Structure formats: C-alpha cells, structure tokens
Amino acid sequence: MSDLNCTRTSIDINRQYFESNPSIIDSTFIGIEKNIVECANCKYQSVTYKPYSVMSLELTDSLENSISEYFQTKSLGKGNEYRCEKCEEKSEAKVIEEILSLPNILVFHLKRFDSRGKKKHDIV
Ligand SMILES: [Zn+2]
Description:
Elements: H1 3-20, H2 24-29, E1 31-38, E2 45-52, E3 54-58, H3 63-70, E4 74-75, E5 82-83, E6 90-91, E7 94-101, E8 107-111
Parallel strand pairs: 3-8
Antiparallel strand pairs: 1-2, 1-7, 4-7, 5-6
The structure holds zinc ion.
C-alpha cells in the first residue's frame, strides 16, 4: 500500500466519523487518533482508529516536552507483551500514536500520580 492510499484511507475514516457524528460537540471536542502496534517478530502492523477528546500526558518540565513524549514510539516491555494477530507470537511490540485530526478544543490531562498512586511532588 502506498503512502497516498494510506493518507486517503485516513481522510476517509476522518470524514466518515464526522458525517455519522454531526453534532457541534463532536466537531468542537473530538479528534481522531491512529494507534499502530507493530509486532517485533514479523513487523505486522495492527492499526486502529479511535475518537478522542483528552490527550493524557506524562508530566514533564513543559507542555511541549509532554506532548513530544506522547508521540514517541513506545515498546511493550516484559510482562506486557503483545500477542500478534498474524504470527500469533508474543513479543515486545512497538506502539506508535499518530493524530489524524485535532479537535478545535483539545483537553490535556497531566498524569500527576505515578503507577502506585503517589503524587509527583517534585514537579507539581
Ligand atoms: Zn507478528
């Protein structure tokens, strides 16, 4: 599949969502996100699209850095492996977040607590 076809598919998905959800709430607060999970074993990419209204960010020293961190390719580590739908093997897959469209008003959620529920006092 060429890049042009990928782009056209993405535009169609975006258009399709907003045509079937024509409310002012959707057109103001909803964007479409593309989530790619790439198998480390066979490189197959599982792609899903989903509407979002909140971008949940890790807390860093600036909003710009938090947004940059959000879009960095992540790896599913040990104990959190991904089972590939193509080769059916478990692997430490890559997860890539992309934005298909932005809402007019985007809400940022800053993760002020760590995974144990403890507040990050050094920054907040
Ligand atoms: Zn695979």
